[in-house]
Inverse folding.
């Protein structure tokens, strides 16, 4: 049993409120000590981490790993490799695979493949309705027994309010959250970008923030009615943030997530018809972005979730309206988060809270803490390390990043899962 | 010939510099004598001007054609139809600098069928301009004859084009440039720059 | 000017250059032999993935008047119907040594996309609801014939602005040439943020046409009207149609333009379409000249 010590790092543990220089000891896959003073016991290996941050491994509540069925875009191995490179130690994968994950068999398959080839921990989100058709509930009890930690029709929308009500009620009975992709498909129509001056200039069909907000309003009412845990996926509109804030104040059991690209980019990005700026919900106005940032800062939006959605190059290299929605994001999320820290929106501790502790707690998946006894899932971050986002540098099988060509600053340089190194940027720890 | 009414381009600015330089080979009086002689020669060749059409090559040939036509009208006591032919779209040379030259509308005063068309230019050099002009004229109809008048012939023909009426023969080196230009005082002159 | 993808990024000088070049091209179209050898040996490929006869024929005539070879590719007859991607088709066309690609598609951004991928000049012949630059240029050329300069003139554009690429290109072109532009449509057909283009949105003919020197009527697509954006064709014609009564709201010598094809009795009354203020047929004639100018200017030597 060999003991590893990482010393001299800035320890950031939102679970305990710790933000101080110190060291962390790992043995046998668990954290054995953490703090300003080095723990007792001589370590077998010491890693000098001065100038670096040490935080609990990031937790992503919204990833598309594409396995089974679409492995040409990504699979569990490549997707979790990308996750580890981004500082993630746990990802939750969505059910819009092929076949759809609406059966225990597919859930078990994903978990087995994750055990075999996963580079980080994988938790499974199963479909809320059969076939994602939005009509009949999926076998949630069996799915939960098989291991599903939440239910979602993401990739599709439950348009029928009666169906959504039943899904929420039933899921409450199972004790699992329902993740809602809130979008009124009728209001959205053929819109592929945010309705506004940029869409008008580009001549692209567009839809307003209200396409999301009317569904957020509906689902919040249904959550209030049923007492279920509603989790709003990828919030993008200012008004949605307001509604969630009000609902929380009124005691509704709701959590919410926001993507890195919605926190950094606006609809101005669509001007060049770059399909790597096309996702659902679309990038919205500067005003919406402001509201999202404040929502994340004041906790209305609980966490950052990537909505990592890989697509093959040739699928995206088509006319804008024909391209599939979605961008990858596991490897750039942390850098975007650090940008928010640099802009004084969040403290380093708050950022780690939004990217690790809070999401872990929201779904009860474990992780998000550096307390002694916890599994050794943590990440060393160099907040100053610059890098250019390019296809060659991305671990994900698909390279459809909204940040291609951009220079980002700050990234994970080493990630541990259960005490094992899942990702190392450099052979030696370079500062 | 540089036109002061147009916005200044790099070419125009260079032309301004040239104004200050160059060796004048034909002054205003010389030009007048030359165009008068051309008019006489045209009449000598064919005294009957009823089928004559003077067509200036845009833009260099225009002032020359004006002078020649004025002389012809005086000598023959008849109105002579005058046209202006833009050959930009008929040129065979690869575009220099990648920027297309501006074509101007062509004005033909009448049909050229059965007419004696005299093309008038300022400087005859390689012959390519006249070849392009002939292509253009033949697109307008079937003239009885095409003849060429030029104020200055500077040699260095690249095509078998002959000049029927010359104002002045001026031997030049290939690299030299010969220009018909308007001085500040409005007088025309031909210079080697 | 390497491509003509839209008016939005054209300078006033570039616009003037096209208009000036069009003068000579118009004169060629008035000769008996309507041909010059300028683009002899060059190949213009019309990639019309959205069906159109008028614009395609106009470009074809323009190419042939310059002695270029014109080839037409449409969606039905193309490899796209066999699931070849647009980008691959474009590369194949360029590999065949096309000199110019003229592209029309029902999706915005396609000419832009092709211009990024091929080393051949691309002319946008209309992309979705985005732009139709040659239409705006021929509209400006037509207005010049009657009005001279557009500086200070008032232009009213009426129709389904949200779905009109002609409206957007016209707005950019006329404002760059110094005109004041108003757009008129029922609210369901007025796009969000249109003020960002420097125009005043109006919701009645009265508001838009008062004191207008020019009225541009846009074609109403009947599918859009019936039921979803507007209750009926009849109601559209009575509230936003151009007829003798509404035309009288504009200046007495106002000119009428329409990109065509016209829906008689819908957006424009039959008698107005045929009356003196209408320059609709001039637009068609000028269209060939303007397209000749564009083909000429884009096929210069190495730019």
């Amino acid at each position: 049993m060999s003991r590893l010590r990482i010393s001299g790092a800035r320890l950031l543990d939102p679970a305990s409120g710790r933000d101080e220089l110190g060291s962390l000891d790992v043995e046998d896959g668990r954290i054995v000590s953490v703090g300003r003073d080095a723990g007792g016991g001589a370590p077998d290996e010491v890693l000098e981490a001065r100038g670096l941050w040490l935080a609990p491994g990031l937790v992503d509540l919204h990833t598309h790993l594409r396995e089974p069925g679409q492995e040409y875009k990504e699979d569990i191995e490549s997707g979790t490799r990308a996750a580890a490179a981004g500082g993630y130690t746990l990802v939750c994968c969505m059910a819009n695979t092929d076949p759809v994950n609406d059966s225990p068999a597919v859930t078990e398959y994903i978990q087995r493949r994750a055990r075999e080839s996963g580079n980080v921990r994988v938790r499974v989100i199963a479909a809320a309705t059969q076939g994602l058709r939005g009509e009949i509930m999926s076998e949630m009890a069996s799915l939960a027994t098989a291991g599903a930690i939440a239910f979602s029709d993401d990739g599709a929308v439950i348009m029928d309010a009666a169906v959504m009500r039943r899904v929420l009620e039933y899921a409450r009975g199972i004790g699992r959250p329902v993740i809602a992709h809130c979008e009124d498909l009728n209001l959205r129509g053929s819109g592929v970008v945010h309705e506004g001056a940029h869409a008008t200039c580009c001549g692209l069909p567009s839809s307003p923030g209200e396409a999301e907000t009317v569904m957020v309003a509906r689902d919040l009412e249904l959550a209030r009615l049923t007492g279920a845990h509603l989790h709003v996926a990828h919030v993008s509109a200012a008004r949605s943030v307001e509604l969630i804030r009000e609902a929380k104040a009124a005691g509704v059991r709701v959590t919410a997530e926001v993507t890195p690209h919605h926190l950094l980019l606006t609809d101005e990005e669509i001007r060049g018809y770059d399909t790597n700026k096309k996702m659902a919900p679309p990038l919205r106005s500067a005003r919406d972005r402001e509201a999202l940032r404040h929502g994340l800062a004041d906790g209305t939006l609980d966490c950052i979730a990537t909505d990592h959605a890989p697509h093959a190059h040739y699928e995206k290299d088509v006319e804008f309206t024909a391209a599939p929605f979605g961008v990858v994001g596991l490897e750039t999320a942390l850098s975007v988060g650090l940008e928010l820290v640099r802009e004084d929106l969040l403290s380093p501790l708050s950022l780690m809270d939004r990217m690790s502790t809070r999401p872990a707690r929201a779904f009860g998946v474990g992780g998000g803490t550096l307390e002694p006894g916890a599994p050794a899932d943590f990440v060393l971050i160099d907040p100053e390390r610059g890098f250019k986002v390019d296809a060659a540098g991305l671990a994900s099988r698909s390279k459809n990043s909204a940040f291609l060509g951009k220079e980002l600053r700050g990234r994970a340089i080493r990630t541990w899962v259960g005490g094992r190194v899942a990702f190392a940027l450099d052979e030696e720890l370079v500062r | 010939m540089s036109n002061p009414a147009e916005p200044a381009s790099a070419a125009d600015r260079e032309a301004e510099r040239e104004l200050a330089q160059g060796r004048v080979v034909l002054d205003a009086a010389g030009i007048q004598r030359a165009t008068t002689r051309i008019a006489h020669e045209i009449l000598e060749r064919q005294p009957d001007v009823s089928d004559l059409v003077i067509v200036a090559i845009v833009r260099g040939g225009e002032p020359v054609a004006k002078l020649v036509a004025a002389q012809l009208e005086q000598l023959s006591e008849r109105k002579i139809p005058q046209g202006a032919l833009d050959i930009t779209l008929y040129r065979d040379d690869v575009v220099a600098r990648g920027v297309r030259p501006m074509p101007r509308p062509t004005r033909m005063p009448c049909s050229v069928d059965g007419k004696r068309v005299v093309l008038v230019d300022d400087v005859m050099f390689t012959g390519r301009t006249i070849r392009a002009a002939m292509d253009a004229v033949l697109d307008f109809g079937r003239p009885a004859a095409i003849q060429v008048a030029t104020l200055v012939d500077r040699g260095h023909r690249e095509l078998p084009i002959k000049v029927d009426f010359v104002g002045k023969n001026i031997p030049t080196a290939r690299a030299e440039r010969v220009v018909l230009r308007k001085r500040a005082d409005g007088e025309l002159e031909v210079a080697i720059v | 000017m390497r491509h003509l993808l839209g008016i939005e990024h054209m300078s006033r000088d570039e616009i003037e250059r096209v208009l000036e070049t069009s003068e000579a091209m118009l004169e060629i179209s008035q000769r008996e032999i309507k041909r010059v050898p300028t683009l002899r040996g060059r190949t213009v490929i019309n990639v019309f993935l959205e069906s159109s006869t008028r614009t395609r024929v106009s470009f074809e005539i323009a190419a042939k008047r310059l002695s270029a070879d014109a080839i037409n590719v449409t969606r039905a007859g193309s490899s796209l119907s066999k699931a070849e991607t647009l980008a691959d088709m474009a590369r194949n066309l360029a590999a065949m040594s096309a000199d110019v690609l003229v592209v029309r598609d029902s999706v915005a951004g396609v000419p832009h996309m092709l211009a990024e991928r091929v080393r051949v000049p691309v002319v946008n012949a209309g992309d979705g609801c985005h732009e139709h630059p040659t239409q705006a240029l021929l509209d400006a050329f037509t207005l010049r014939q009657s009005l001279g300069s557009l500086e200070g003139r008032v232009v009213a554009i009426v129709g389904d602005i949200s779905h009109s690429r002609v409206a957007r290109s016209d707005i950019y072109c006329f404002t760059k040439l110094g005109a004041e532009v108003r757009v008129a449509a029922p609210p369901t057909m007025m796009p969000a943020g249109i003020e960002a283009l420097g125009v005043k949105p109006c919701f009645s003919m009265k508001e838009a046409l008062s004191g207008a020197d020019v009225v541009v009527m846009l074609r109403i697509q009947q599918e859009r009207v019936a039921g979803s954006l507007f209750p009926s064709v009849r109601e559209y014609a009575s509230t936003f149609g151009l007829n003798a009564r509404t035309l009288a709201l504009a200046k007495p010598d106002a000119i009428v333009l329409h990109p065509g094809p016209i829906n008689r009795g819908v957006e424009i009354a039959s008698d107005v379409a045929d009356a003196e203020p209408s320059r609709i047929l001039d637009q068609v004639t000028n269209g060939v000249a303007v397209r000749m100018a564009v083909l000429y200017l884009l096929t210069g030597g190495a730019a």
About this structure: Chain C touches chain A through 26 residues (CB under 8 Å). The mean pLDDT of chain C is 92. Chain C has twelve helices and nine strands. The domain at 133-280 of chain C is CATH 3.40.50.1370 (Rossmann fold).
